[in-house]
Prior knowledge:
Chains A, B, C, D: It is found in: Cytoplasm. Chain A is an alpha/beta fold.
Amino acid sequence: MTNEDTLIIGGKKLKNRLFLGTGKYGDHRVMEEAIKHAATQVVTVAMRRVDFENEEEDIVRLIPDNIILMPNTSGARTAEEAIRIARLARASGLGNWVKIEVISDQKYLLPDNQETLKATDTLVKEGFVVLPYMSPDLMAGKRMIEAGAEVVMPLGSPIGSNRGIRMKEMIQMMIDELSVPIIVDAGIGKPSEAAEAMEMGADAVLVNTAIATAGDPVQMARAFDLAVKAGRISYLSGFGSTSLKAQASSPLTGFLD
Amino acid sequence: MTNEDTLIIGGKKLKNRLFLGTGKYGDHRVMEEAIKHAATQVVTVAMRRVDFENEEEDIVRLIPDNIILMPNTSGARTAEEAIRIARLARASGLGNWVKIEVISDQKYLLPDNQETLKATDTLVKEGFVVLPYMSPDLMAGKRMIEAGAEVVMPLGSPIGSNRGIRMKEMIQMMIDELSVPIIVDAGIGKPSEAAEAMEMGADAVLVNTAIATAGDPVQMARAFDLAVKAGRISYLSGFGSTSLKAQASSPLTGFLD
Amino acid sequence: MTNEDTLIIGGKKLKNRLFLGTGKYGDHRVMEEAIKHAATQVVTVAMRRVDFENEEEDIVRLIPDNIILMPNTSGARTAEEAIRIARLARASGLGNWVKIEVISDQKYLLPDNQETLKATDTLVKEGFVVLPYMSPDLMAGKRMIEAGAEVVMPLGSPIGSNRGIRMKEMIQMMIDELSVPIIVDAGIGKPSEAAEAMEMGADAVLVNTAIATAGDPVQMARAFDLAVKAGRISYLSGFGSTSLKAQASSPLTGFLD
Amino acid sequence: MTNEDTLIIGGKKLKNRLFLGTGKYGDHRVMEEAIKHAATQVVTVAMRRVDFENEEEDIVRLIPDNIILMPNTSGARTAEEAIRIARLARASGLGNWVKIEVISDQKYLLPDNQETLKATDTLVKEGFVVLPYMSPDLMAGKRMIEAGAEVVMPLGSPIGSNRGIRMKEMIQMMIDELSVPIIVDAGIGKPSEAAEAMEMGADAVLVNTAIATAGDPVQMARAFDLAVKAGRISYLSGFGSTSLKAQASSPLTGFLD
C-alpha cells in the first residue's frame, strides 16, 4: 500500500512527508545529520541566511543535491518584500519553489494572510511553485488556492513555541474542505504531535525548532521520521470507532462460572 | 543509543515496547500478521479464551515461540477468582507471567485496585511475575510495588474505548514517582497517543482494540510499532523547551533593509 | 469595583457583557423571557428575519426599548450584499449598529474575513457602528481595527455547534494584542465556556444556540448571565498562580507528632 | 425550580453548593469576608490549625454560627491518625462531620484511598458523618459508599495546584455511577472550572487556594458563588446538543435573492 502513497507538489513526487527547516541548529554538521536521519526530501531555508559570498558558510551548499530546496521569505513584512525575496532566490539559482512568509507582528510572529495572498497571486503568475505559510482560516485557504497556491501551510501554534497543534479545529476543517495538500507548519514540538497531524489527514508536516533544539537533534529527527510515517500509515489504514463506554475484548461471562 | 535501550521485566530483556492484546480480531491469520508487523515481544491472552481441548482453535498455538505469553485473568471479578485463573494458567504450561485483571463494573470495565492488590500479593508470593492492570492512582501503585508487582499497568481510558490517555495527569505522576516500569494499558486508540505515552516517559504500551478493529489491522500494527519507537527515541533525545510566545528561527531584522 | 466596570461600544455604556442572538427559539414568548433573564443589553437580529409587513410577527417589536438592537447581515455572501443589508437596516429605523456576517461556506458557516473587512471599511465610512464577526486571526483583527471596526467578534467554534472555545490560542492572542473590545461570538455551548472566555479577558460574549435550544431556555439564560458575571469578576480580581505540584494549605508537619 | 434544589448531607439541607477551605488566607478578616461573599454553608478547617488555647487566634471562632463546620484530618498519614484526629475534633465540640484526608505522599499530596477507606469504615461506625477526600477511582468510590461515606470527594487535580479538573474522565464516571453526592475537591483554580464541574453533574465543589490566593479574595469568592450557581442551573436546564458542523440560526437562503 504505502509504496504507492506519494505526495505530488509542483510536479515532484514525494515519498517522505516530513519537511525540515534549517534555523536554530547550533552546528552545521548536526543539521546535515538531522536532515539525513529525517529522511526528508524538502528543506526550507531563509533567503536572508544564504551567504552567497562565503561559500564555506553557505547553508545551501550543505543541503544534499537530491533534496528539494524551498527558499522562504522570512523577514518579509509585506507582500512586496516577499515578492522581491522570491525573485532574488530564483535569480540566484535556488529553483522556483518558494514558501511565502509575511510577518509584521513581532511578538507571536503570526503570518499576515492578506499580504501573503497578494504575494501568492503575483508569484504564481511569475511561474513560481508557491507554498504559503498562513494563519489557519478556511476561507483564506480557499483564496490562496484560487490564486494558484500549490499547497497551504497553516500553523499549528506560533513559530518555535513547541506548543503543538493548538489550532486543531480550523486545521481539521481545512483538511476536510480544501482541494490542495495541507502541510502543518510551525508549533509542532513532539513526534506525537506530528503523528496527530497526519492522523487528522494532513499531507505533510514541517518541523524545525523541535528538532534543532532537542538534546540530540539527530535522534530527534529520526523520531519525527518514524512518527510521520506512523501517522500516515494509520490514517490510510482506517481507525476503529471511539466510544464513551468500555468495549470488552471478549464476552463478559465470568470465566469460572 | 537505542541498541542498548532495553526494558527488563521478570528477568527478560525486551527491545520492543509495544505489547499486544489478542481480542476482537475477526480472523486468526490477521492477528498473526498484526503481531508480526507490530514487532511485539509480549502478547497477552485471556485464559478464558484458551481452548485446551481444541488444538485447531487454540489461540495460544498461534503465538510464535519467541514471543512472551502473558496470560491475563480477564473475567475475574474478585482477587480469589484472579488467583485461581493465574494458577490454572501456570499449571497449563503457559509460564509464570500473569497480567491481573479484576473487574466487577460492567459498564466501564474499570479495574478494582483493592482486589487487584490482594491478588498481586498472593501471586507474587507464589512466584509469579505479576503485572497488575489498574486504575491510575499513585498511592495504589506504591502498594502494588510493595506487594511485589513487576510493573504497573494504569489504563489510559476505559478498555476498548479508543479515547486515548484521558488520565494523563495521574499517569504522569505515576511515571515520575514510581520505581517500576509503567505500561499504559487500555484506551490508546491511535499511534499518536501511543507516542505521547512514550514521550511522557512510559516504559511501554499495550494496544489491542485500536489495532484489531482498524480497517487494516496489519498496517495499523506497523504504524503503532513506528509510533512507539518514535515516542521512545524522542523521550531519550530530550525535548526542547516550549514557550507561550513565538521564537524566531533567525534574527528578526528585515531582510531587505 | 464592579459598579464602575463598564464596556463602551459606539458611545453606549454597557454594564452587562452577555449579548444574545434571537434565532432558533421555538416560541417568541420564551425568547422574550430569556432576554429578560439574561439581563442582556444588546440583542442581534438577522435582517432577513425582520418582517416589516406583519407587525404581529415582527421579531423587532418583541425586543424591549431599553435594549440595543444590533441588526446582522446573516445571509450575505459578499461584502456588497452585507453593505446593502446594513443600509436597509438603517433605513428601516433599526439604528446604526450592524454586526457584519459574510458567509459563503455552507458547511461550517465560517465567516469570510476578506469580504468582511471590505464591508467594514465601507460601512464605517458611512457612519455605522460596525461589529465584524470573523474567523480568529490576529492580523485580520488588526486590519478590521484599521478600517474602523468598533469591536472584533471572533468565533469560538462554528455557529450553533455548541463546541466551546476551540480557537482559544488565537483568541487569547487577539485579546492580548488588539486595542478594541473582543466579543467571543459563536460556538459557546455552556455557561462554563462563557465564564472561561471572560477569564481569558474577553470583553463580552454573544450566545444564541446554547440558550435557544436548551431544555429550559429561560433558566439557561439566567445561568449564562451568572457565568459571564463570574468570569468577569474573577478576571478583575486576579488569579492565583498555577503549579504542577501540590501546594499544601498548611505546614506539612504531622498533626499528631 | 431552584428554590427546591437542595443538597442533603448528614440530614442537613443545603441550598449553596460551594464549600470553602480556610487555609492560605493572609488575613482572618479577609477570610471572614470571603466566606460571606461565597454564600457558603459548609466550611472545612484543619484540626491542626485549631488553637484551643488562644481564643483570639482560634480560626473556629471566626466561622459564623449558621455555617456547618467540617473539621478535616489534614496532616494524617494513616487511617489511625485520621481516626484519632476525628475523635479529637468531636470531643472538642466541633460536631460530628469529618472530612477525611490521609496523605503520605509529600510531593503531590495525593490521598491514600486504602487508608481513607479504613478510616471511613471505623468513623462511620462511631456515628460520624464522613466525607472522604480521595483520588478519583470509581471502584474505590463504591467501597467508600459501602463503608457508609455520606459523599465522596474526588480531587480535580493536586491540592493547591489551581490546574482545574484534570481527572475529568474518571470523575464523570463517578458522577454517572455512584449513588451518593459527588463533591469535587482540590485543584479548581477558576470559576469556569467550578461551573464545569457542576455542568458535569457534580453536586458541589470545595474551593480554597483559588480564592485565598486571588488578588482580591473577597471578589473571587463572589465570582465562585455565581459560577457554581450558573453551572448548577444550567445542568438542571438541560443542554442543547453539540455538533461537529455548524447549525445555522435561520434558513440559509440568501437574504437578497
